[in-house]
Amino acid sequence: MSQIDLAWGAGPSPGYEALAGRFRPLFARIAEGALRRELDHELPHEPIRWLKEARFGAVRVPREDGGHGASLPEFFNLLIELSEADSNVTQALRAHFGFAEDVLNVRAPAHRERWSARLAHGEIAGSAWTEIGDANIDGFSTRVSATGGGLVLNGAKYYTTGSLFADWIDVGATGPTGERISAFVRRSAEGVSVVDDWDGFGQILTASGTTTFTDVAVAADDILPDEDRFKYSAAFYQLVQLATLAGIGRAIAGDVATAVAGRTRTYTHAAAPRSSRDPQVLQVVGRIRGAAYCAGAIVLQAAASLQRAFDTRFAGDPAAEERANAVAELETAQAQTVVSNLILEAATVLFDALGASATKKPAGLDRHWRNARTLSSHNPRIYKDRIVGDFAVNGTLPPYQWRIGTPAAPTLEAGPEKGRTAVRAVT
């Protein structure tokens, strides 16, 4: 059935249904095992392999380069559908999608051609950027150094989401002369160790744990200056999470509707002899579905702003590109607290439509709140309303720099003249 038939609204383009039709049987297959994987702590190696075989990781790569040629609104709508099936899978691939977006934006033709071919072949990338403990917010202790035998990478990272499933790892590092760089290494390379030690209560199957690099050989043409990365990256990574939340909302709506339809037990003080006919219960179900609908619509509206930012990349107008990137960041920031509030509330009130048996662990309904709460804790929501308000009142453009760590010295709040460095934001 189409999105329209399911009352989720029209897709973002006339060709969306044909594009989505290629992947929906696969999404359904992923959904079938989602609850079992959650209860058994079974990492989604198999679902990610299915997506690789379908070249879903190349969904944004142009058709002439072997990909599916999806626009950004089409891509984010697909992520909503995938997240409805299993939000762990989307989150595990978040870094890959950001890496693929970067490939589309890079100005070096040789780099773009090399990586487009790898993506079209089905290869995927993980991420290793965040450092924990007393890591400096302004740089990386992970380094690429020159030796007699070439370049080597040494360091340790955490929140390396998806790297356990990946063919490549995109590593934020300090270069041989102190510059900030991205280094790309094979996950299977000697000296690379990926450990699933993520101990969060949500998104538990994303392998968002520790990766260490010990004298890992790095090819010179697999290093890219950090400032060359795509400028709407912060908005992009955030919108992946919002699309994931919207998909969780649809999963909640589906699960609660199924549970209510099959429920035979009731209460003496209920408004009907069956929950499926109880107007108060139906009101809760409708409220949840409305939240999921609105979340999806908001994601697609913000996705259009990212498409505009992408379209300015090679237009030769730096001022227009800067403005489009700032607007994309603002629109995504405006969406963040609203979408997360909608889905967190839906993940809570679903239990109001069901009995105490819904809290039993085998039902797995708690995973929706845990996953939504974990996603909503990235890139703290409390800052986004302030950033949007500062723009509305003072015209202050949003900061793009999303690093986390220990400041070297007290710093002033980033204003229009600060924080405009478009660096990677993948925590």
From TrEMBL:
Q: Which UniProt keywords apply?
A: Monooxygenase, Oxidoreductase
InterPro entries associated with the record: Acyl-CoA_DH_C, Acyl-CoA_Oxase/DH_mid-dom_sf, AcylCo_DH-like_C, AcylCoA_DH/ox_N, AcylCoA_DH/ox_N_sf, AcylCoA_DH/oxidase_NM_dom_sf
Q: Which domain of life is it from?
A: Bacteria
Asked if the keyword Ligase belongs to this entry, the reply reads: no
An example of a Pfam family matching this protein is: Acyl-CoA_dh_N
Question: Which stretches make up the Acyl-CoA dehydrogenase C-terminal domain?
Answer: 243-378
Positions of the UniProt region annotated as Disordered? 408-427
What are the residue boundaries of the Acyl-CoA dehydrogenase/oxidase N-terminal domain, all occurrences included?
29-123
Biological-process GO terms, alphabetical:
L-leucine catabolic process
Which Gene3D superfamilies does the record cross-reference, listed alphabetically?
Answer: Acyl-CoA dehydrogenase/oxidase, N-terminal domain, Butyryl-CoA Dehydrogenase, subunit A, domain 2, Butyryl-CoA Dehydrogenase, subunit A, domain 3
Q: Where is the signal peptide?
A: none
Give a yes or no for keyword Transcription regulation in this entry: no
What GO annotations for molecular function exist for this entry? Answer: 3-methylbutanoyl-CoA dehydrogenase activity; flavin adenine dinucleotide binding; monooxygenase activity
Name-wise, this protein is Monooxygenase
Give the source species. Chelatococcus reniformis
Tell me the lineage of the source organism: Bacteria, Pseudomonadati, Pseudomonadota, Alphaproteobacteria, Hyphomicrobiales
